[in-house]
Design brief:
The complex is a heterodimer of chains A (156) and B (189).
Chain A: H1 7-16, H2 20-28, H3 30-59, H4 75-79, H5 81-101, H6 103-129, H7 137-140, H8 145-151
Chain B: H1 21-43, H2 46-62, H3 73-91, H4 93-109, H5 118-136, H6 140-150, H7 156-163, H8 167-188
Helix pairs in contact in B: 1-2, 1-3, 2-3, 3-4, 3-7, 5-8, 6-8, 7-8
Classes of the chains: A mainly alpha (156), B mainly alpha (189).
Chain lengths: 156, 189
Amino acid sequence: MSDHLTPDQFAKCFVNGAEGLELRHVKECPRCSDELDRFGSAVALFRRAIRGRVDVHVGSDVPEVSSFPEYAPAIWATRFRWVLAAAAVVVLGLIPVLTIRTQPENAIDRTSAETDSDALMGAINLHLLRTLPAPMEPMLALVPSAESEIESGGDR
Amino acid sequence: MKPTTTSGFIAVSMENPALETENFERLVEQYRTRVLRFVFASVRDMDLAETLTQDCFLKAYRSRAAFRGACSIHTWLIRIAINLVRDHARSRRFQFWRSAARVHSEEIRDWPDRKTSPEDEAALNEQIQAVWEATRTLSERQRTVFLLRYMEDLSICEIAEATGLTESTVNVHLVRAVRGIRKRLGESK
């Protein structure tokens, strides 16, 4: 391939990932590689902006579902009301006893819960570091490996 | 005599429990953002997008008995949303685009703060606006497949299910959409 990617080849590379001659060209041609990178960034930016805009909108209002019928009260809630009340009294009475017996276990549970939350925060941070969405990952194969690692936050 | 709920709606026996009347509110909560996002990106007007999203769930609720589970609930909802966006654009072709152009700058002002300098933010907004403007120049099908792929992360197979097109046709529309947007971005520089 002597010249740069044609518009069709460029679009196919972006959508499906480059193969064969196109792949070799993109790896050797900084101009086409940069162009793919720039286009991918523009689409990713647009995506983030729309998602952010909708997230802000959804976060600022209450979902309107008034057009749907109200739910019928759960049958078990009415039929077994007295059984539930008695069970609640028994459970409340047992709480002090159970608390004393299970204190060491609770300490272990708390530690594991903290570890879980650390792991969760780690996973969230890792996810947030990704700047390119999944559909654009074919493109990552087209840019030099060091850049790929930066773009994907090293998560590959 | 057909069984009814306490609110008078006809109780329909569902194959998918998520579509039962009792679970429908949860389904709305689960999918509302995704449907709204696609509709907003398509019509570029948040008020209109909200209305169409509500219509989408109302239509889904009314036709839930017809859902056979051949595709995922998300794909099914997106298919309804695509039809609503298309019907709306066709019924109000002229007012629709005029109104979209009017609200565009207002919507842009509401972008979340990205902690950048005013100059950088202006450049970013310009880039976002250019891509959004470019999607407007695409055909309806090209725009739909582009948004579903790059906004909603749907696979080619899922897009084919949602649009009723074959996978190869989806791919062709996607390639044309990318080519069109790139051309438009090149012209706007």
